[in-house]
Amino acid sequence: MINPGWLKTFCTLVEVGHFTKTSEVLFMTQSGVSQHIKKLEAYFGVDLIFREGKSFSLTEAGQTLYEKGGELLRQGDELENILKQDEKYLGLVRLASPGSVGLKLYPHLLDTQQEHQGLVIDYRFAPNKQIEKDLADRKIDIGLISKVCDDPLLLSEKVTDEPLVLVTPAHIRKVDWSVLMDLGFISHPDGNHHGRMLLAENFSEFQHMQQFQKQGFSNQISFILEPVSRGLGFTVLPLHAVNAFNKPDLIAIHYLSKPVFEPLYCCVNRNALLANRVKYIKSVVQEHLS
User: How far apart are CA 73 and CA 145, in angstroms?
Assistant: First the structure.
């Protein structure tokens, strides 16, 4: 591969037209300039200039190298500028999280994007395992998951604890085991996990989630509470998801005697060099959720 330092010396010499002035422009010795030209000629195996005392003229090969080499140098400068452009408020940031936290976080990130319109927020809702895989494959920059990452390629940093709450139709003012058995369970992708965590701590009768009649299922976070609001059953969700429901008067949130929290971790790829925009959005996420 052609040495860019030699090429820069050659192109500068052509533009300046004098060995001594070239050495001054590049802060080199005159002999250093000559050595670069000779090394280029040796590399290509052709003469690049005709030396005529203190002046010179280009050979045909020299003219071609100047035209093509100058273009290569300009492209190199442009590439360097692009790679070094690491502005805090400019560029794409890719995130993923479970739906519950996304309902709270995504609108706030859109507010941030409106404030800094050079930023582009790409936000996906996904389960823990998918988020870990996408982080490892560098398909996303930041992942929020509800457990410490298993993959050694990933770094986990605890952000907050998200409370789990039991949600019933609005007319249910007080819950006990018989009320839950009568209602039945509205499930979701993390329904069994969340239900087991909360109910096992608060009801001595609890053994497993199959004790409840399954009354429905939705994998869309914004729809999980719709059947609950219509009196079709109860569910267990993180509080962020419940607070985002657009019909709060039709549901009742029950804070049980023994609170249960699901941890939330902010994860990145251990080998990724985080751009300033990613670091900025990561700080926004942590501040908003903590």
Answer: 45
The predicted-structure confidence for 90-102, as pLDDT tens digits, reads as follows 989 999 998 888 8
SS3 call for 193: helix
CA distance 80 to 90: 17
Helix (H) or strand (E) holding 9: helix 4-16
Q: How many Å apart are CA 35 and CA 257, to the nearest integer? A: 83
> In terms of DSSP H, where are the helices of 45-92?
60-84
Q: What are phi and psi for residue 172, nearest 5 degrees?
A: -85, 110
Token pair 């990145």 is found at 268
DSSP per residue, 91-151: EEEEEEE-HHHHHHHHHHHHHHHHHSTTEEEEEEE--HHHHHHHHHTTS-SEEEESS---S
Report the pLDDT value the prediction gives residue 205, as an integer from 0 to 100.
96
Radius of gyration for the alpha carbons in the chain, expressed in angstroms and rounded: 32
